[in-house]
Design goal:
The protein is an alpha/beta fold. About 55% of the residues lie in helices and about 10% in strands. It has helices spanning about 1-35, 50-60, 70-85, 105-115, 140-170, 190-210, 240-250, 255-265, 275-290, 290-300, and strands at about 40, 65-70, 95, 120-125, 170-175, 215-220, 270-275.
């Protein structure tokens, strides 16, 4: 009996490993089939997350439209994609200059894309502008610029492409948002306001377009950290707020978010919240015990916590 059990254990492990391998291969092929030949628009494709989304969707055989506000960086991304791609399985990306904080040019970009491809199957709203500072020291002009880049820009592009999706009764819109669309953090008033507004808009839009088989998805990670940047030890004093904030600001890697965006498209998920347990607990705390949450946040402000820069 003992010998049989010893022999069965390696076979069991081998079987589990085989099943995991088959699952991964099926998932990879499924991901490719989900975007094969699809017209995919990615805004702010030159950001860390934008580059990873471009890589994942390009490998999957999508017809990419890469938008960014710096032409040289777009060309560098283009060369990077082409250099490792299989020409027989991928399409040449289209590059488009687009600054979402300049609302006046968004309609023209949407028209250019529709004239080129005839439709857009998937729109990934990834562009975002960040700022940190006390509310009374942030100018109203800067507040407006943040709202243009994070709210009015994405919804203007969405509204320009949405009629085509509705008429074809197919399409998916993905908003890459942030945890601050669910809760506010000190010294990020304009940023949090824009993220709350964007999440509210796309939550409403989801219900409006469901009857047309248009899918609206939101992916909300904590902060997206830079490449190869690991959290330092720092000189953190013991406090609930500092422990929470330290966990919150570590964020997730662009590769992980890009892969989640692909899974969201493939499975047509409506909402994804990417965070470790501490930020998730904060969201629930804000919902069910708001007074306690506000007290913890206020405590952090009183301690004059030095907030790390976000990218």
């Amino acid at each position: 009996m003992g010998v049989t059990a010893v022999l069965m254990l390696p076979l069991l492990l081998l079987g589990i490993s085989g099943l995991l391998f088959i699952y991964q291969e099926v998932s990879r092929l499924w991901s490719k089939s989900a975007v094969q030949n699809k017209v995919v628009v990615i805004t702010d494709a030159i950001s860390g997350l934008g580059k990873e989304c471009a890589r994942v969707f390009h490998t999957g055989g999508a017809r990419l439209v890469l938008c960014g506000k710096n032409w040289e960086r777009l060309e560098i991304l283009y060369d990077a994609l082409i250099s490792v791609a299989d020409p027989s399985k991928t399409f040449t990306p289209k590059l488009v200059l687009l600054d979402l904080s300049d609302i006046s040019c968004v309609q023209d970009v949407a028209k250019e894309v529709l004239d080129c491809y005839g439709c857009v199957d998937i729109l990934i709203n990834n562009a975002s502008m960040k700022i940190k500072g006390p509310a009374h020291k942030i100018s109203l002009e800067l507040d407006k610029k943040i709202m243009d880049a994070n709210y009015f820009g994405p919804i203007t592009l969405t509204k320009a492409l949405l009629p085509d999706m509705i008429s074809r009764r197919t399409g998916q819109i993905v908003l890459v948002n942030n945890i601050q669309g669910k809760l506010g953090i000190p010294f990020r008033t304009a940023y949090a306001a824009s993220k709350h507004a964007a999440l509210g808009f796309f939550d409403c839009l989801r219900a409006e377009v469901e009857e047309y088989d248009v899918v609206v998805s939101t992916v909300s990670p904590t902060f997206i950290r830079a490449y190869r940047v690991d959290p330092g030890q720092g000189n953190w004093e013991a406090s609930i707020w500092k422990f929470f904030f330290r966990k919150l600001t570590y964020g997730v890697h662009p590769v992980d978010v890009a892969e989640e965006v692909m899974r969201t498209v493939r499975r047509k998920k409506q909402e994804v919240f990417m965070a470790n347990p501490i930020p998730k607990a904060a969201v629930y705390l804000r919902t069910f015990f708001p007074e306690l949450f506000f007290a913890v946040v206020a405590c952090g402000v009183k301690e004059k916590l030095s907030v790390p820069e976000e990218g």
